[in-house]
């Protein structure tokens, strides 16, 4: 999996990413129980995180911004409210690990067995974000948010490859968790805090939570004529 960048292939990449997100996530379930509705007007400055502290928030925003940057094809992660979505998720049963059996032993397992790490997602972020920030500071002498775009992308590639030690959380585990949640926030129902104005759905021509669009399923190459609909 390559980090999402600004390129002519961006739309095709995001189409494939949308397929990778479970259908329930695309229309709003996101694997959570009792998800809190988002508030605010979609601007980063208007949203106050409820879980992440200021330093964690700055690092998280900078990371998701490079995973899905804005370009001519559609909004970036920040414009879509991915950072808000992830923060809201941290106060759900999902983030506390209540959707899985979270008792030892924890052993390396194939991805098809689901979540296997011994930390619940909120604990993982609490450890990995400052660990990543400290690793970047040691390596570059600067904060991640102060680095040029090319260097930020190179550091994310190091996370993906597992070549940047960030503390207790393995770099590859953090990268996969962050990429998964970024995709979910980008393509979720707006009721959950991400996909502001359903812009990601509009970009890939996804109908959203409409009750019936079967007449259009097999009309290949024909643009779906109706705007997407939210569960809200």
The ordered string of helix (H) and strand (E) elements is HHHHHHHHH
In terms of structural class, how would the helical and strand content be classed? mainly alpha
Number of strands: 0
- Count of separate DSSP helical elements: 9
Gyration radius (Cα, Å) is 18 Å
Describe this structure in words.
It is a single chain. The chain is mainly alpha-helical and 232 residues long. The protein is 42% helix and 0% strand. It has 9 helices and no strands. The protein has helices spanning 10-20, 23-27, 54-67, 77-80, 82-89, 121-140, 149-161, 171-187, 199-204. α3 crosses α6, α5 crosses α8 (171-187) and α7 crosses α8 (171-187). The longest helix has 20 residues, at 121-140. The radius of gyration is 18 Å and the shape is globular. The chain starts with 9 loop residues before the first helix and ends in a 28-residue tail after the last helix. The relative contact order is 0.18.
Give me the secondary-structure topology.
Blueprint: H1 10-20, H2 23-27, H3 54-67, H4 77-80, H5 82-89, H6 121-140, H7 149-161, H8 171-187, H9 199-204
Features:
disordered N terminus, 232 residues, globular, 42% helix, mainly alpha
Quick recap of the structure?
With 232 residues, the chain is mainly alpha-helical.
């Amino acid at each position: 999996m390559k980090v999402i960048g600004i390129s002519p292939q961006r739309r095709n990449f995001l189409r494939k990413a949308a397929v990778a997100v479970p259908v329930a996530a695309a229309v709003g379930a996101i694997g959570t129980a009792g998800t809190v509705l988002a508030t605010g007007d979609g601007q980063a400055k208007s949203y106050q995180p409820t879980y992440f502290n200021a330093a964690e928030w700055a690092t998280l925003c900078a990371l998701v911004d490079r995973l899905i940057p804005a370009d001519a094809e559609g909004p970036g992660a920040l414009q879509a409210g991915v950072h808000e979505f992830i923060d809201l998720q941290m106060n759900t049963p999902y983030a506390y690990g209540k959707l899985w059996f979270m008792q030892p032993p924890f052993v390396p397992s194939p991805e098809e067995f689901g979540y296997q790490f011994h930390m619940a997602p909120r604990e993982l972020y609490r450890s990995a974000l400052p660990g990543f920030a400290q690793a970047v500071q040691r390596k570059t002498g600067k904060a991640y948010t102060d680095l040029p775009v090319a260097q930020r992308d190179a550091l994310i590639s190091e996370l993906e490859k597992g070549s940047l030690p960030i503390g207790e959380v393995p770099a590859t585990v953090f990268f996969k968790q962050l990429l998964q949640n970024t995709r979910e926030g980008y393509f979720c129902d707006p009721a959950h805090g991400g996909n502001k104005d359903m812009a990601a759905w509009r970009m890939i021509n996804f109908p959203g939570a409409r009750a019936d669009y079967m007449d259009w399923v097999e009309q290949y190459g024909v643009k779906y004529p109706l705007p997407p609909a939210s569960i809200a």
